[in-house]
Amino acid sequence: MAHGLQLGFQDATSAIMEELLHLHDHTLMIMFLISTVVLYIISLMLWTKLTHTNTMDAQEVETMWTILPAIILILIALRSLRILYMMDEVNNPLLTIKTMGHQWYWSYEYTDYEDFYFDSYMIPTSNLEPGQFRLLEEDNRTVLAMEMPIRMLISSEDVLHSWAIPSLRIKSDAIPGRLNQATLTSSRPGLYYGQCSEICGSNHSFMPIVLEFFPLEHFENWSTLML
């Protein structure tokens, strides 16, 4: 999860999030190189006496500064499109969960099980136990199995909400009357926190999201106890 004075992204917990981090790093490197060249040229213009200042035509230079940026943009776009395809693709999900946003809590329904649903409210600050995080804890955590492709169906009962888990690269709008879809797979067990990311009223900041990932056998034991 995020911590104080953090300047980068949260640690990746899914394959797609790792791809996004690699794309960010490579794009940032390209931007740094371009910025270095531009600053170098500006410094030459300011502090040195350039030759050929009266040149009116330079076809070779114009061709180079047209083709080179186009190639760079195409390389970035190709990798971006690949990741977008991976994010939208759903390959045989083993578990489907329907998530509904309300003012101001979340409800979850495990559609692969009969009558398996619950509501999740934020735990008030006065009721927190030692080690729990303020404004991020729920009374009912969403328990999932790690290394399992999971499909989230996201909607809303009232106003616009947004279901977001930064470490899993998920941010999907919850829109009344519309069902959005997101996929997630966690590569390791743990607790992953998120919050509603769409202003939805006076208690917008009191809609945390907590996902708890376990190995498959622990998830099966938990689901058996809950049924």
UniProtKB/TrEMBL annotation:
Domain Cytochrome oxidase subunit II copper A binding: 92-225
Electron transport keyword on record: yes
Chain ranges of the Cytochrome oxidase subunit II transmembrane region profile domain: 1-91
Transmembrane segments: 27-47, 67-85
Substrates-to-products reaction catalysed: 4 Fe(II)-[cytochrome c] + O2 + 8 H(+)(in) = 4 Fe(III)-[cytochrome c] + 2 H2O + 4 H(+)(out)
PROSITE patterns xrefs: COX2, COX2_CUA, COX2_TM
Keywords: Copper, Electron transport, Magnesium, Membrane, Metal-binding, Mitochondrion, Mitochondrion inner membrane, Respiratory chain, Translocase, Transmembrane, Transmembrane helix, Transport
Keyword Transmembrane helix: yes
Stored CDD domains: CcO_II_C
InterPro entries the record matches: CcO_II, CcO_II-like_C, CcO_II_C, Copper_CuA, Cupredoxin, Cyt_c_oxidase_su2, Cyt_c_oxidase_su2_TM_dom, Cyt_c_oxidase_su2_TM_sf
Family to which the UniProt record says this protein belongs: Belongs to the cytochrome c oxidase subunit 2 family.
Function statement: Component of the cytochrome c oxidase, the last enzyme in the mitochondrial electron transport chain which drives oxidative phosphorylation. The respiratory chain contains 3 multisubunit complexes succinate dehydrogenase (complex II, CII), ubiquinol-cytochrome c oxidoreductase (cytochrome b-c1 complex, complex III, CIII) and cytochrome c oxidase (complex IV, CIV), that cooperate to transfer electrons derived from NADH and succinate to molecular oxygen, creating an electrochemical gradient over the inner membrane that drives transmembrane transport and the ATP synthase.
Protein name, per record: Cytochrome c oxidase subunit 2
